[in-house]
Automatic annotation (TrEMBL):
<dbReference type="InterPro" id="IPR029063">
    <property type="entry name" value="SAM-dependent_MTases_sf"/>
</dbReference>
<keyword id="KW-0489">Methyltransferase</keyword>
<dbReference type="Pfam" id="PF08241">
    <property type="entry name" value="Methyltransf_11"/>
</dbReference>
<dbReference type="InterPro" id="IPR013216">
    <property type="entry name" value="Methyltransf_11"/>
</dbReference>
<dbReference type="GO" id="GO:0008757">
    <property type="term" value="F:S-adenosylmethionine-dependent methyltransferase activity"/>
</dbReference>
<dbReference type="InterPro" id="IPR050447">
    <property type="entry name" value="Erg6_SMT_methyltransf"/>
</dbReference>
<dbReference type="GO" id="GO:0032259">
    <property type="term" value="P:methylation"/>
</dbReference>
<feature type="domain" description="Methyltransferase type 11">
    <location>
        <begin position="51"/>
        <end position="139"/>
    </location>
</feature>
<protein>
    <submittedName>
        <fullName>Methyltransferase type 11</fullName>
    </submittedName>
</protein>
<keyword id="KW-0808">Transferase</keyword>
């Protein structure tokens, strides 16, 4: 129990690292493009249940609603209230300790959230638990060592290499169906995100 208490205390110290982020480019364009790609996948249909991990201020949630899906978002900090005030179904919840029943969702959308986990392998096990057999998982993370140095962001704890991410996905029980390198330039210089379309084998 002492170990769990120490873990809880450590997690509590990280709450100060959480901050709201207003949607902006390139996130607006990338989100739209990747959701369109996801919706074109076989088996993705209106009416399915979607969990948006780290939903921010509701950008992806609004896209999913417009497509006829049934999304629920989770976030921490000010973004929860901002989304709720817009009428979006968003809960205050840590991605590593999901308060949902097993097999609750057809799709999990996790864009720029997994790098905020202090133990991503455990977090992925939670994703698997709440995802239905045959379901889909979208994950997007920043690459390390670009001009933006995402690994130095105060609330980025797991900015891993691509092969490590791929290994963790497979170990957690997911199949990697598609990988995309997203390249763009910001004032600091070249930057890159990695996009993974995964599935949970039936």
């Amino acid at each position: 129990m002492k170990g769990l208490q120490r873990l809880g205390c450590f997690i509590d110290t990280l709450k100060a690292d959480v901050y709201p982020e207003i949607p902006s480019e390139p996130h607006l364009s990338i989100t739209r493009q990747m959701i369109e790609r996801l919706l074109a996948k076989q088996g993705v249909e209106p009416g399915q249940q979607v969990l948006d991990i780290g939903c921010g201020q509701g950008l992806a949630l609004r896209h999913f609603l417009a497509a006829g899906l049934k999304p629920v978002g989770i976030a921490l900090g000010e973004d929860v209230l901002i989304c709720q005030q817009q009428g979006l179904d968003v809960r205050s919840m840590d991605q590593s300790f999901l308060e949902f029943d097993d097999n609750s969702f057809d799709i999990i959308w996790c864009r720029h959230a997994l790098e905020h986990s202090i133990f991503p392998y455990f977090t992925l096990a939670e994703f698997k638990r709440v995802l239905r057999s045959g379901g889909r998982l979208y994950i997007e993370v920043p690459a390390p060592d670009t001009s933006c140095h995402h690994e130095t962001n105060p609330n980025h704890y797991s900015v891993l290499g691509k092969s490590m991410w791929r290994s963790l996905f497979v170990r957690a029980g997911f199949a990697v169906e598609e990988e995309i390198d997203i390249d763009f330039t910001v004032p600091a210089g070249p930057d890159q995100y990695w996009s993974f379309f995964l599935s949970l084998p039936a």
